[in-house]
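Example record

Each entry pairs one chain with its bound ligand, cytidine-5'-monophosphate.
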Amino acid sequence: LKAGPLAGRRVLVTSGPTHEPIDPVRYIANRSSGAQGTAIARALLGLGADVVFVTGPAEVPPPEGVELVRVESAREMLEAVEAALPVDAAVFAAAVADWRVSSASSSKIKKQAGALPALTFAENPDILATVSQRTAGRPALVVGFAAETDDVEANAAAKRLRKGCDWIVANDVSPATGIMGGTENAVVILSDEGAERWPRMSKELVARRLAERVALALA
Ligand code: C5P
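Structure tokens for the complex follow.
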């Protein structure tokens, strides 16, 4: 039996990038390593939660002890997230691709002299917004992330309202901060209560403090 303030609580975490297929051997992706999402899942486990970890193809290995669901594309991630409901809280740390190739080829696209493939795109579902705006079975607490390069707080505050989540964890990913791909993070937590600015600290510590905040909110 688990002990801790989140014992008996089921929490969903999404993490990593998504891969959007072009054909059976090619895909479009992004540079998310999955580090922050993995740290959050580990911190939630540490507080006794049952964690459903829905991850795209991440660089860092998933934590042990989670209910692990591996997915590739954004649409698969949405399906896995909806299958994992109901949960008490959901933390959306994945870097979901905004677009997919609208008609991925079922066979490898052949290279042809003088001809370039023309890819067209379709918009992916917004998983955070979809879950936040559910009328039935919405988690009591929904947390999103916002990686911004300018007007961090204003953009993140607008994003929180647009998506309908409870909290947004906002950070400045301008190259000068060294946060993207680094081991530290400096975040602002936006909620109905306003903005809470945390000093720069390790991503592990951000994860632990966030997990504690989740435990307090569910208490
Ligand atoms: O709109 P933007 O991508 O900046 O929003 C970031 C937040 O939304 C993150 O929490 C991310 O996990 C979530 N998201 C999502 N599905 C998408 C796009 C973003 O869940 N298709």
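The longest strand covers residues 141-148.
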